[in-house]
Specification:
Layout: E1 3-6, H1 8-16, H2 23-26, E2 29-33, H3 34-40, E3 48-51, H4 64-76, E4 79-81, H5 85-93, E5 98-99, H6 101-110, H7 118-126, H8 133-142
Parallel strand pairs: 1-2, 1-4, 2-3, 4-5
Amino acid sequence: MKKVIIDTSCLIALEKIGLLDLLPKLYDAILIPGEVAIEYGYPLPDWATIIEVDFIDTNPYLGLGELAAIHLAFHEKTLIAIDDKKARYVANQLGLNYTGTLGIIAKAKRKKLIVSALPFLVNLEAIGFYMTEDLKESFLNEVMEHER
């Protein structure tokens, strides 16, 4: 079973660019920590499973949603979708497999659920999603698209 735990930033970004409904097409189970659901602030789709997580806030550099998502991913031994650089560092230190908004878009392109990833990259930039030029170029190479 392909499960993923989604952090707030990924939920918001995917919702803002119209790709939130791709998640159940890519994963069998989408787990959302309660803290992430609160941070998201909107009703979640029926396919999302909200999980209450008991943890102690021990990292002053991460938000509660990120901490809860990392904690849940560690205990579930499953993939986490998280964009924040500091949160990815912590996830990596814990040996977690992670992806992010761009990884989800790339997976959707590989599975032919979207024709082109470039318009979504442009939309992400328009909503203020931060990415370096190197990351952008790497993503475009991965999905075999180049800016036109």
